[in-house]
Structure formats: C-alpha cells, structure tokens
C-alpha cells in the first residue's frame, strides 16, 4: 500500500446508558450537540482525519448503553481496532461498570491489553454533581496502562483528544508509532 493511502480504522464506543456516547460521537463527527436524550440501538458514523501526516477514515460504532452484563455482541467486537470506554463523571455506577466492560472485551478478544481510552464525560456539570474524582480516573488509567480523558460533549472539551488518543493507541499497537509517552490524563 502506498504510504499515504487512506487507512480505515474501526472504533467502538461503549459504556452505560446516558453517559454521552452518542453525544461524543456526534460532537466529533458533526460538531453538534443536543440536550435531548434518544437511546441508541446502534449507529456507525465516519469521519476522515489526518493524523501525523497520514489520512485515515475512522468508522465509529456508537453502541447501545448497558448497565450490567456483557457490553457488546461478538459481532461488535469483531474487527474493532480501538475502544472508547465512557462513563459519566456524575454517575459512579457508570465508572464501576467499565471494569466489567473491559473484562468482557479482554475475554472476547483473547488479548491481554486493549488499544483503548478511558473517558469521563459531562465535566461541564456543577462540581457538586461530580461523583468520580480525577485522581480515581488517573489511578484506573494507570492500572489499565491507557490514556484517560475528561470531556464534555456539551462544551466540546477534549472531544477531539479522545479520538486522537484512541488512534494513537491503535497505531502504536500496529507498530506504526514508537511509544513516546505513558498513560496520561487530559483535564484541561
Ligand atoms: N451536561 C452534559 N450533558 C450531556 C453531555 N453529554 C451528553 N449529555 C446529555 O446526556 C444525555 C444522554 O446522552 P447520550 O449521548 O444520548 O448518551 P448515550 O451514552 O449515547 O446513551 P445510550 O444511547 O442510551 O447508551 C442527553 O440528554 C445529552 O444531552 C455532556 O458532556 N454534558
Ligand atoms: Mg447513545
């Protein structure tokens, strides 16, 4: 393949209901946000990006939210390159559920690690709505050796970062990037 031919990468967005998976996907692909809640069955959106001088098309599968049990059908885990695991910083259960999600993914893919990003969304909400602290998020990201990003789909805070970091993790695993940084948290 020519060095600059467009590469296709598939990303799946997982997590509990109503944490903002669709809102993050819509914000990233179409730069829109809606206050209205419409539960997702499953959607796939795509966006072309240039990352480190290379053209990519990202195919993003926005999954239906779950509260417990297995997060994704085997069809969903097939051919996925990178994972975005989302919780709401105002919903502790959604944070705890991501452990189940990750364990299920490790089991179904048979891998020991995953190219993934841990995302705490809704940071625009008032501080007293915050039930998951950034220190806990950092600790979990360190345990999982993955990047963590605190986002707001509403205000467009750090949304681009999520997909940049996910693509970085995918390409690192593919051997297209030499590791330059350890897990980090973006809260700015
Ligand atoms: N304040 C605030 N509200 C948000 C944010 N992201 C999403 N929401 C709101 O939260 C609700 C749920 O958002 P969705 O994006 O539909 O959540 P989801 O995770 O896709 O939900 P399911 O499809 O049911 O799994 C909607 O009312 C959104 O407007 C955010 O960053 N800040
Ligand atoms: Mg949704």
Automatic annotation (TrEMBL):
<protein>
    <submittedName>
        <fullName>Small monomeric GTPase</fullName>
    </submittedName>
</protein>
<dbReference type="GO" id="GO:0003924">
    <property type="term" value="F:GTPase activity"/>
</dbReference>
<dbReference type="GO" id="GO:0005525">
    <property type="term" value="F:GTP binding"/>
</dbReference>
<dbReference type="InterPro" id="IPR020849">
    <property type="entry name" value="Small_GTPase_Ras-type"/>
</dbReference>
<dbReference type="InterPro" id="IPR027417">
    <property type="entry name" value="P-loop_NTPase"/>
</dbReference>
<dbReference type="InterPro" id="IPR001806">
    <property type="entry name" value="Small_GTPase"/>
</dbReference>
<keyword id="KW-0547">Nucleotide-binding</keyword>
<keyword id="KW-0342">GTP-binding</keyword>
<dbReference type="GO" id="GO:0016020">
    <property type="term" value="C:membrane"/>
</dbReference>
<dbReference type="GO" id="GO:0007165">
    <property type="term" value="P:signal transduction"/>
</dbReference>
<dbReference type="InterPro" id="IPR005225">
    <property type="entry name" value="Small_GTP-bd"/>
</dbReference>
<dbReference type="Pfam" id="PF00071">
    <property type="entry name" value="Ras"/>
</dbReference>
């Amino acid at each position: 393949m020519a060095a600059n031919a467009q590469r296709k990468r598939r990303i799946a967005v997982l997590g509990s209901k109503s944490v903002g998976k669709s809102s993050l996907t819509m914000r990233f692909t179409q730069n829109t946000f809606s206050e209205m809640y419409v539960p997702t069955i499953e959607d796939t959106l795509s966006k072309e990006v240039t990352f480190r001088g290379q053209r990519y098309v990202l195919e993003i599968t926005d999954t239906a939210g779950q509260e417990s049990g297995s997060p994704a059908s085997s069809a969903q885990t097939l051919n996925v390159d990178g994972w975005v695991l989302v919780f709401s910083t105002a919903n502790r259960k959604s944070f705890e559920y991501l452990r189940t999600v990750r364990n299920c993914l490790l089991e179904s893919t048979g891998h020991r690690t995953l190219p993934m990003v841990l995302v705490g969304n809704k940071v625009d909400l008032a501080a007293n709505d915050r039930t998951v602290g950034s220190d806990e998020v950092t600790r979990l990201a360190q345990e999982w050796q993955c990047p963590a990003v605190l986002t707001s789909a509403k205000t467009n805070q750090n949304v681009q970062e999520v997909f940049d970091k996910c693509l970085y993790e995918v390409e690192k695993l593919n051997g297209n990037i030499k590791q330059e940084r350890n897990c980090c948290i973006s809260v700015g």
